[in-house]
Known about the structure:
This protein is of the alpha+beta class. The chain has one domain (23-261): q2cbj1_9rhob like domain (Jelly Rolls, Sandwich), CATH 2.60.120. It has helices at residues 17-26, 37-52, 55-64, 66-69, 80-86, 89-99, 236-246; strands spanning 28-31, 104-113, 120-123, 138-144, 154-157, 183-185, 192-197, 202-205, 215-223. It is globular and about 45 Å long. Mean pLDDT is 91; it is low at 4-12.
Amino acid sequence: MSVQTLHTSTGPPALDDAQTAQFERSGFLVLPGFLPNDLVTRVKQEVDTWVDTGLRARSIAAVLDHAAHGAPDVLEFDLPGHGELLTHRPLLDVVGRLLGPGFGFHHMHSDRHAPDLPGKGWHHDYEQRSTSRRTHTMVHALHYLDGIDPDMAGLAVLPGSHREVADKTARAHLGTDVLPREVYLGKLPAGSTVLLHSALFHARRAKPQFPGRPRYFVDASYCEAGALWPPVKPYWREMLRRARRLGLGGADWPDLFAEHHFSEYTRPE
């Protein structure tokens, strides 16, 4: 199938009806070169700080053993560039077109993938746990700060699979195998963003035979209003409070960091 893209070189993006319908059918939208260069540069520097100073490791430890560690002293969006990326107006305008008004922030991750990092098998990241139907949409924004080149791990997506009601690991036994109907994104310019319906099956297909270069990667997810979403971080209330104190949502998105979007945290089994 053809890859639906949104080109943004002429100004702030807006989705037309055809692009919105394409997202609803395929479950993804490619935004090549979406992020401004100065923001990309600043966020990349912060990713190095996040990884090299142990902030990322402490963030992971706080999720795995919250009782011992509590909420991290520094969250991803406490870093100024990450906070700006999370609430980048053109991004939230697009997300709002896909999710409707009053949508909420769910979580954010930041990493620098080593060239020899193993792939990640077929999975989805939708957080509602219903096994019978899905009524609300969740979107993941995958930001490739340095883009993707042919010597680097690429992103494989399975168009239309977001319409299945399946467990996150329903295709895990396939590893990162090439699947019929998949679309493989192996080349994107710096500052590109891929928007996924969070229920879309996707995989990171590694290329360990190439020395390559690190892949700077940040993802953030947003959830449609009107449903209670399970949080993935035990300190989710502190996370939302901190974002509100930083004024990240501003007046245009007053519900972005509201607690009413969420149910109570339950540790994964």
